[in-house]
């Protein structure tokens, strides 16, 4: 187990009283996993991830990273343990008076790497994040995506086993977000670094995470393999997050002009690839009109939702619907004009 959090509590003392940031959270992350924690603002995600490297001191609970329990370490021991935990931030936190190379070299100097080795390591890191041509540039001259690449290079400088990402793509546009996520994925698969990320965007979780947790009011309310959570969300909040990706509204006009039965079909896994829809038209005397549809690929497994109008004789429609229902995850007759 790379990360094990046991009964973590973080309470803030404020002038107005105490605020619970993290409320008895326990979680485990396996070596090499990408683990995403999703939640709305104020759910406690930042508090939780900042406790993982003790940027924030937990009120109680245990944090084990690669077999080391962090909360009981002395200052010196903690400084050493932290080298194994890289972190990147929403607003990058680069030093504006230092060049790209100097920003990265700083992390190596702090860890005591001999000067002669620093240059080579910086060159290697710049190459890894695709910024070799920007080494002497200052952060102000970089785009957001480039700044985050510097942040990533700096976080990886001392060969950490864990990378913590605090809303790392939230300040970036969608296409830059994609490129940063694919860089994180590459780092994970090529270097075997375990990644924990927090985000309010399900899209991020969908794109790169293996497992995920949903956080609300300081607690983890649902957890699991990303495909499983997307396909079978249990809590209302999780359903809302999943719907942000999968759902769509059907225009009112379509509902008014329908003729046969309107059905909503959920596909899961391989079923989505097996052509259930085309089989239905070969087997039964019905016509079908797809009004809306979407297939998302999560961990390369399809998860789909379709709305289809089925017309024809009532008996045939019923048989066709029964046929589809038997072969898909979930079928809802949403409207019946007959
Ligand atoms: N330094 C602090 N002092 C007092 N209360 C805090 C502090 N940091 C966070 N909190 C409170 O703890 C709770 C959780 O906040 P946290 O920032 O961890 O949530 P979040 O899910 O990361 O949300 P956001 O994305 O908006 O930061 C909130 O009620 C917040 O007001």
TrEMBL record:
One of its GO terms (cellular component) is plasma membrane. Signal peptide: none annotated. One of its GO terms (biological process) is amino acid transport. This is Methionine ABC transporter ATP-binding protein. Coiled coil: none annotated. Gene3D superfamilies: 3.30.70.260, P-loop containing nucleotide triphosphate hydrolases. It comes from the Bacteria. One of its GO terms (molecular function) is ATP hydrolysis activity. Belongs to the ABC transporter superfamily. CDD domains: ABC_MetN_methionine_transporter (cd03258).
